[in-house]
Amino acid sequence: MRSGTTEALSRRLADEQAGSRLPSVCAALVRDGASVWCDARGTADGRADGTTVGPGTQYRIGSITKTLVATAVMRLRDEGRLDLLDPLERHLPGTALGGATIGQLLSHSAGLQAEPDGPWWERTPGAGWEELTGSLTVASTRHRPGRRHHYSNVGYAVLGELLARLRGAPWDQVLRTELLEPLGMTRTSTGPVAPYAPGLAVHPFADVVLPEPAHDAGAMAPAGQLWSTAGDLSRWAAFLAGDTGDLLAPDTLAEMSEPLVLNDVPGEAWTGAYGLGLQVWNLEGRRLVGHGGSVPGFVAALRVDVASGDGVVVLTNSTTGISATVAEDLLRLLEECEPRTPPAWQVRPVGAGSLELAGQWFWGPAPLVLRALPDGGLSLVPTGPTGRGSRFVPSGSDTWTGLDGYYAGETLRAVRGPDGAVRHLDVASFHLTRSPYDPGTDVPGGVDPAGWR
């Protein structure tokens, strides 16, 4: 990385620490699966002579914990141990929430109450599972399941217990065995391990701080108790960017990253959504995934640009104050100062069947182009103001299955005439022809015999 880039990034971090009055802040950037920059400002206690912080300093990461819990649950799904449509009752009987599905719990669409009953759970000693589940009633479901996004820490406490029951081990031990140790995230734990930054509140009208309590959250811990470092979370950012190894199938990560429930604010264009354990952001056409974290004494952010794979981690030990844009600002600076060089074009073989179909097609009068992709795939792209596009993968002789867009899961079939030549394409009952409403093909509804006029 060029010196000008590191100077710009470190200056943005310094401005944030000073301008937002943060005791300390640590940030890192990830590209191509590796950390390419990390810097920190301030000290652990905010004092001039305090302990410096760095990539190995632990901070509480709050709800970023949920991304690991969700990944472990999805591993169970991939093993066939559960289905996202399963009601909770099937695997965790005896709660008042049994009708909620696993998928709804993961996406915060089960309608559950946001926080547990009782005192502020993030600042008081946590209760066990029996006490938590005993406090939940039918009224704990605040909204019709599936109706809307309603963030629920309680829902992830339930998922943590589900994970423990199905694996036969505490939720945090499951995460350590299945994710943290294989990924080399040795500085991630349920409690602080030195060196770590204490949680602090900064007085709004004076340059003084107040220590925040940090109790064991008990049954609520899966919602946000983990501590981690910029170094460890850089590895997790690389994971969410696609470097999952053999721990999670790429298709499953893509499924987790799909925006399932919008965080809708009436009258405003949506910019935030939730997938299966991952927050999703739409920032001026850029899609980012990851999660934020906030508990008394700490704020954390982890975001990955889906298109580029670049990731950012930001950690601070202040209850409030950090600006909402610092993570995006660091990603933007990386992109501006170190733009990626596009890979060189090169020949890639395509299937003979897909090459035969490449070229101009029409959906009625609407023009589209079908491109042949490597490994026999196809890409259907509208070239006019209307039309529906999708990518397809081969699924049989003269058939392809849609990967995305309107035709996801639908079949594209090449229909041949008696001479063996392709006459038209059938896509989910729609006919695509080589010319607009080609009268020489079997257009549903027929073509006016007088033709165009």
UniProtKB/TrEMBL annotation:
Residue intervals of the DUF7586 domain: 354-434
Keywords: Hydrolase
GO MF term set: hydrolase activity
Domain of life: Bacteria
Residue ranges annotated for the Beta-lactamase-related domain, each copy included: 13-329
Protein name from the UniProt record: Serine hydrolase
Organism the protein comes from: Georgenia subflava
